[in-house]
Amino acid sequence: MVRRDRAPKAPTIYDVARVAEVSHQTVSRYLSGVSPLRPASRERVERAIRELGYRPNLSARLLARGESRTVVALTGELVEVGTVQLVEGVRRAARTAGYLLDVVTYDSSDAGELEQVLGGIVRQDVAGVLAIADTDQLRAAVERQPPGLPLTIAEHAPGSNTVEIQAAIARHLLDLGHRRVTYVAGPRDWRSARTRLRAFEEAAEGLECTRIYARDWSAAAGHEAAAEAGDATAIVCANDQIALGVTRALAERGLRVPEDVSVVGYDDMPESAYFSPPLTTVRQDFILHGAHAFRRVLDRLEPDASREPLPTVEDRLIVRGSTAAVRNSGK
């Protein structure tokens, strides 16, 4: 018979109580915080926890308190790279704050499914809900729910430089001699898509700008939208996946990027530097954006708690090979 060494058991509150020379009820009271301990007892318990490397079972503690520390991140299908990275930022922030994150997805093309998902969340014991996708569909569905749904919508982070970054894109294209630009926005019912488009149009003084709304955030939608780009010398896309589809569609028409048409994306997903050519895009710190989104939830759940301010979000333009000077200004 081959003997296998068993992994050491994790210490329990009974181990902590034995080392601290107190009762396990005393350790439980310390962990729950429901009643103060004498300073000497508290010090012994804390020392024992450090010595043993004890980690409290968060779920058991919350069950004992009758509280929920679960926050639901509600989003459409996890197919868009930016959404996936944003959810990861939310997850990290939730974990740091001592909350569990439950990611719930729904088919964004099925309004009935969204209603069902929201109804199911209402019946669960959750501390709060963070809606990642800020769409008109979502807001309408929320309004039809019974009052009391603890929902927070992930909006632009405080200090977000959306207007400034769109101005930077416009200046970059103007400096390269572009005058006719097509902007391929995200889906029309997404507030973030409309916000970015509006910011670009406000910043695009000196540019002849045509707008197109993609049906979704995918490369396929960008490929489809490119057919309406007309004779633009530059195409600005609402995200990198749309830009990928646009680039493919241009190649199929015999147009080269950037020699014939410059292309700009948004998000700087990891693959963007490996497009052919590498994509000029806007780099977003999704982890920080996620932390800001969860901070709004935390401020709602723990309004009296003092917290260190988060760093300001500053997206920035990354210039790569997909943009170049206009070769023929008469095009």
UniProtKB/TrEMBL annotation:
PROSITE patterns per record: HTH_LACI_1 (PS00356), HTH_LACI_2 (PS50932)
UniProt xrefs under Pfam families: LacI, Peripla_BP_3
InterPro entries assigned to the protein according to its UniProt record, in alphabetical order: HTH_LacI, LacI/GalR-like_sensor, Lambda_DNA-bd_dom_sf, Peripla_BP_I
Keyword annotations: DNA-binding, Transcription, Transcription regulation
SMART domains, A to Z: HTH_LACI
SUPFAM superfamilies associated with the record: lambda repressor-like DNA-binding domains, Periplasmic binding protein-like I
HTH lacI-type domain boundaries: 11-65
UniProt name for this protein: LacI family transcriptional regulator
The species this protein was found in: Paractinoplanes deccanensis
Lineage: Bacteria, Bacillati, Actinomycetota, Actinomycetes, Micromonosporales
